[in-house]
Design goal:
Pfam families: Guanylate_kin. This protein is α/β, with parallel strands linked by helices and 204 residues long. The chain contains eight helices and nine strands. The structure holds guanosine-5'-monophosphate (5GP). The site of guanosine-5'-monophosphate has 15 residues, from β5, β6 and α4.
Amino acid sequence: MKEKGLLIVLSGPSGVGKGTVRKAIFSQEETKFEYSISMTTRNPREGEIDGVDYFFKTREEFEELIRQGKLLEYAEFVGNYYGTPVDYVRQTLDNGNDVFLEIEVQGARQVREKFPEALFIFLAPPSLSELQNRLVTRGTEADDIIRGRMETARKEIEMMNLYDYIVENDKIENAVEKINSIVQAEHCRKDRIQQRYINMLEVE
Ligand code: 5GP
């Protein structure tokens, strides 16, 4: 029996640079995982191609996909729907290939429920560590600015709970390198590969 691929979920707060990091990963020739192209009801931006960047759908079409159970997860984000096609994900994993999702946090929570064995990576904003630095050298920012940033930071830190790994997006190439290393390490996990060796003894 073919080993299943790994489902990799990259998520994190809005504006952290998930899309940029994902594009950098897929611009590398050695990247072996498959990007799951999402469905969305938002309008294409200049240069975006249907079936490459997204599958662009009307609200009616999207709601029909929800009704038919065709989405692994979906969320409404700034007035538009975004969702992951479930058949593509299952088929790719069953074929033994890794699937990479780049989605916002509400969707990641739904994937956690359906695929607890998936790998969840949280992309954290460097502003969190900058904030920490600023707090120790207090007096440089007005109190209300610090308070506002603390509130944002608190929400972002709470979001981290769901994830297996946290990668700070200080520099794109650092984040890409860390994500690749995490995926590689994850493939070496005993739980994932031990069965391969047990099967080997059985065919002898
Ligand atoms: P954008 O409109 O900038 O392409 O994407 C907006 C947000 O939607 C980003 O945070 C992106 O990660 C997220 N997103 C893209 N595809 C999906 C998806 O299939 N499901 C969910 N839940 N979020 C998505």
